[in-house]
Specification:
This protein has 205 residues and is mainly beta. 10% of the residues lie in helices and 34% in strands. The radius of gyration is 27 Å and the shape is elongated. The protein starts with 12 loop residues before the first helix and ends with a strand.
Length: 205
């Protein structure tokens, strides 16, 4: 809360003194009511986006949570996964060494006040592709040009669907894995395979 003080000129010295005293009191009230900076606290970490990084790569990653002061220290369960903080709160550059084992790796942020809950960063040996909207209809599906690939997406609203298109030769097999639980996501996903007419070929729930 802030106070706005208006000082009006007066013709007599007593009124000048009264106005000065009133102004001093108002200024004191304004200073005492000024916003105070937030006290340092243990970081809270909700998630990373993207939540995956390719082995042997450098990836910009955003941490979602509260970080005061910035930057916190970062602990990971793999020496080859290194988080380098950026100039803006929540922004990291993640370096993943070529020898880091694929799969989920635990990450925790900490400072003098305490530590966050541990969250997963998934290391993948395949190239990473981020979702690009609009792709919520099979007729506007994003094309996957090469495999293997790891695709990361987010559901933006209730009933949201992400569609991807790939070309397969007759008799060719594709293995598709959809991860949500390992990321501590509440998502209950459904994976559907349709042909170029939109007719369902297979479903996994």
């Amino acid at each position: 809360m802030r106070a706005l003080v208006h000082l009006l000129p007066r013709t007599r010295w007593r009124r000048h003194a009264a106005a000065a005293a009133t102004g001093a009191l108002a200024a004191l009230v304004s200073l005492s009511g000024a916003d105070k900076p937030a006290a340092p606290a243990a970081p809270t970490l909700e998630q990373f986006f993207p939540v995956a990084a390719t082995r042997g790569s450098t990836t910009p990653v955003t941490a979602v949570g509260k970080f005061n002061p910035w930057p916190p220290e970062v602990w990971t369960d793999a020496p080859g996964v290194v988080f380098r903080p950026g100039g803006k709160a929540g922004q990291f550059t993640v370096e993943v060494g070529p020898d880091v084992a694929p799969g989920p790796h635990l990450v925790r942020l900490y400072n003098r006040q305490g530590a966050s809950a541990a969250r997963f960063l998934v290391v993948t040996p395949a190239p990473l592709t981020l979702e690009a909207e609009p792709n919520d209809d099979f007729a506007r599906a994003a094309t996957i040009a090469a495999m293997p690939v790891t695709i990361e997406g987010r559901l933006q609203k209730t009933g949201d669907v992400d569609c991807y298109a790939l070309a397969l030769a007759a008799g060719q097999t594709v293995a598709a894995t959809l991860d949500a639980h390992v990321l501590a996501s509440p998502l209950d996903p459904v994976l559907r395979l349709v042909d170029d007419r939109g007719l369902e070929v297979a479903l996994n729930h």
